[in-house]
Every structure is written in C-alpha cells, then in structure tokens.
Amino acid sequence: MTDALPLRAVLDAGRRRLTGSDTADPAREAAVIWAHAFGRTPGEAALERDRAVAAADVERLRSLFERRARGEPLAYVAGRAGFRHLDVEVDRRVLIPRPETEGLVSGVLGRVATGTALDVGTGSGCIALSLAAEGGFERVVAIDRSADALRVADRNRRGAALAIELVRSDLTSSLADRSADALVSNPPYLSEAEYAALDRSVRDWEPALALVSGPDGLAATRRLLDDGRRVVRGGGWLALELDASRAGIVGEMAAGLGWQDVSLESDLFGRERYLFARRSATS
Predict the structure, then answer these.
(1) For 246, which DSSP code?
(2) Tally of structural domains, the chain
(3) Is the dihedral of CA 116, 119, 122, 124 positive or negative?
(4) What digits encode the pLDDT tens for the residues 126-143?
(5) pTM for the whole structure
(6) Phi then psi for 276, rounded to 5 degrees?
C-alpha cells in the first residue's frame, strides 16, 4: 500500500510521468491537476510543498497523472476549464471551451443584452451562463440535443447559481416562433474529412457530435441560418461561430436568406470566426 508522501514528492513524480508525453509544461500541469483535484489553486502547491498527502490521495493523483500522460486533455483530467469569468466543469460528454468562443459572447453583448437569449448547442453551458452573468437578459435558454451534455450544463448551472433554462432539442427544431432576441450558437462546423484529419488530442477525446457537421461542415450552420428566421424576433440578432475557411460562404448565405446587417468579425488570432446578422424588423 502506498504511504503518505509530502506534496513536493507527489508533484515531482507527476512531473516525471508527464515528461516526454505531449505536455508542454509537465511541472505546471502536475500542479494544475493537484489543484483541481482538491479545490485549490496551482500557486498554493509551492506554499504547501511540505504538507503530507494521504496514501489514498497519492493513488488518486497518480491515476490522474497517468490519464494525462496517455494523452487525455488536461481539462478533462482536471475536470474544469476557464471561460470568461467562469470556471466550468467539463468531461468527455462536452466540448472543451476555447478562448476563441469568448469573443462570440462579447459580440452578442455588444448588440443585444436584454430580452430572451437562446444558446443552441450549449454543451457545458459556458455561453449561456456567460450571457446570464454578464447581460441583462430576462431569460436565457441553453439548448442541446445531447442529454449527457445537458447534465453537464445543469451541474454548471447549479455551481454558478445562475438562472438559465435547459431544453433538449435538435438545434432549433422544437423552439417557438419569434422566441429569441438573440440566437447564439457555436455549432459543429467541421467537414467529415477535416474531422478525420484532426489531431488525435481532439479527435480521440472530444465528442464528434459537437464537431462534425456533414460532408462540407455546413449542415448545422445552414439549418441555423434558415430556421433562425422563424425563431428570431424582428430586429433580433443571430450570432454564430464559424470555421474561418468558410466564413465568406456563410456570410453570403446569410445575406441571400434575407438577414440584414451581416458582418464577419475576427477572433483573437485574426481569423474570421463570427457571423452576426439582424432579422428585419418588418418581414
């Protein structure tokens, strides 16, 4: 049976196990794993390096280090990910929130922050929760076709103590007419070929349902652009995250369907990543 060990020895063992794997900074990641496992911060590891870690907790940490060494994403091993002002639970049932998606929230809040916001394909709930926390919406609804994803979103809703509603739906199919002042989505937008060519750190771990959208990557986006005209109220906004390589095509599709004030905006890396479009107030 494993004996209790000082934290410094446990973290050093974690660093050694992670060295040589696909880990950019083994020492930092070992501290992050410890911190999330015990509700602490990575910085506290240095302050508590002489604290004894119980035998059962040593074994737990070794298991977590092993998972990371075998290629599981750090966010899944740690069980949490940061998104804007939030810290949300994540696991293999949901996509790991990306920094790029934070810009989608900013773009929405710069256009509309009251009424009803619908987050379609909510996953962990990070977009819906951010809109509820930072906007002045009377109602925020988080929608997903995956019951598993909605269970994760529910945990995050309760953890953040924010009032969002959860609805199971295949995109907008079960949403009422003229029910949204803001329809927001980070939909799946990879083609089947692009998904097959993804780095294994994504393809082997994150849910394909949140990534793949038909042969050309546009199946979900087309549906949102089309049915969004039914769901969004006059003068309301549609906001979508896009694959940068198809942003121009999506902008043309939106204009062709009658969306107004169509704009494509860049993410923090300078890639066209977001589409914003307004529904006519009269049609």
Answers:
(1) G
(2) 2
(3) negative
(4) 999 999 999 999 999 999
(5) 0.92
(6) -125, 135
